[in-house]
Amino acid sequence: MVFTTYCYISSAQGVKFSSDLKLGHYMKIPPKLLFKVQMIATLVSSFTQIGVLNWMFSHMPSLCNEDAINGFTCPLARVHFNGSILWGVVGPGRFFGRGALYRPLIYFFPIGLIAPILVWLIGRKRTTTSIWRMINLPVLFGALSWLPAATGLNFSVWAVVCFLFNSVLRRRKPDWWSKYTMTLSAALDSGLAFGVVIIFFGVIYPGWSEGFSWWGTEVYKKVS
Known about the structure:
The protein is mostly helical and about 220 residues long. Helices cover about 70% and strands about 0% of the residues. The chain is built from 9 helices and no strands. The chain has helices at about 1-25, 30-60, 75-90, 95, 110-125, 135-145, 150-170, 175-205, 215-220. Helix 1 packs across helix 2 and helix 7 packs antiparallel against helix 8 (about 175-205). The longest helix is centred in the C-terminal third of the chain and has 31 residues, at about 175-205.
């Protein structure tokens, strides 16, 4: 677990860090200023997350269990733990070795290498409006790494929002799309984070939501 966490998580966070730097470069933000802001945010978020995690373990009974309050079952943490057990304790030979059940999955490594090149070769011979120019297999394949803990409900919502903003709105209102889409995306993410905090501490944690039930409070229990 420690080896996986320090190696994989460090690499994943480094990729996200460089992705933010790249986005800032596109937005013409001074690199030194952006780097300082990222370092400060990383430091603050590290202490904040540790504090929140310790508070949750102290004040929320049955956390990360099936009967946890409001669905705090920690699906992503379970996936990470189970993956560490499979790779570190059981070993990949039991799953991907000769005659193993998941041996055919090995063939997806060359598929993942060759498929994007083929799509790119086909797309470069088509017009700029061709659908082949819009296919990005690394994005499609990379999104599958969220399964689990993401569900079909998550992917369907992502697909609908992406289609509306990057297809419909981009064609009908290109000026608005180019100017406000990134800002709106950041606003929605920030609003969601603030909304979750306010709803949890203002409604759920004091117990005011007991007995309250509608589709939004039950759907996550039916999606696996």
